[in-house]
Amino acid sequence: MAAILLGSGLLLGFACALGLAVGSFLNVVIHRVPRGESVVRPGSRCPRCETPIAGYDNVPVLSYLWLRGKCSACGAKIGTRYPVVELATAVLTAYAAWRFGLGWQALGAMAFVWCMVALTFIDVDTQLLPDAITLPLLWAGLLINLRGTFVDLPAAVIGAAAGYLVLWSVYWLFKLVTGKEGMGFGDFKLLAAIGAWLGWKMLPLVILASSFVGAAVGIALMVLARRGRDVPIPFGPYLAGAGLIALFWGPALVDRYLSTLLL
């Protein structure tokens, strides 16, 4: 029993450390990918004074706390976004390791989590879901399910096609009725990618959860922040959040829903 607990603790500790490191890299991805910049070169630097950030000043979370949220060279304030992304990625990565254990499912779940985190913050900042992430994510979902890692391949293929076509149809129906664009093409590709990873059976859950949360947040922003109806609200974060719910708890939620219907 002690050996099992020790092994589980080591696994979670390693996953948490990995998540912190990946989260630090995701901050670079979130900042540079929408700008079409390389995520490798140049190295990390202060956006204000452009001083390269030394390795000891770039330790996830700890450096932020040590520097009190300021650049060591010019004293410019460092946004809380950076440690938030790192901590969120660490927690989700550790949970994926705990939920799926050692194996391809855990590795796949971690990769899925990392993409969802990056896409969420990119969409919040730019209201764009870049093809550089959504399209590789879609193909990766089909490839990882060649051996049925999460679902069988036919379910993944149908999930990818259905995910795209559902939001594509909603987009055109809304445009025909109102003459306006209700969402971006990136949303189609993100839902297609989620369908490729988790299969078509998870799509109703993802659409329902993302729509419900998105509507609730939109109403809250209009009431509390007095945000106008014409101000666009990115839908990607809600799709990503719903995708994570489906990844971790989707099968149990769907089974419970179906069992309730059959009563």
Main traits of this protein?
single chain; 263 residues; mainly alpha; 9 helices; 69% helix; globular
Q: What does this protein structure show overall?
A:
By secondary structure, this protein is mainly α. Helices cover 69% and strands 0% of the residues. Residues 1-6 have low confidence and may be disordered.
Rg on CA atoms, Å: 20 Å
Percent helix range: 55-70%
Number of strands: 0
> Spans of 5+ residues with little confidence (pLDDT < 50)?
1-6
Multimeric organization: single chain
- How far apart are the termini? 40 Å
List the helices and strands and how they pair.
Layout: H1 2-32, H2 62-66, H3 81-100, H4 104-126, H5 131-144, H6 153-178, H7 185-198, H8 203-224, H9 236-262
Helix pairs in contact: 1-3, 1-4, 3-4, 4-5, 4-9, 5-7, 6-7, 7-9, 8-9
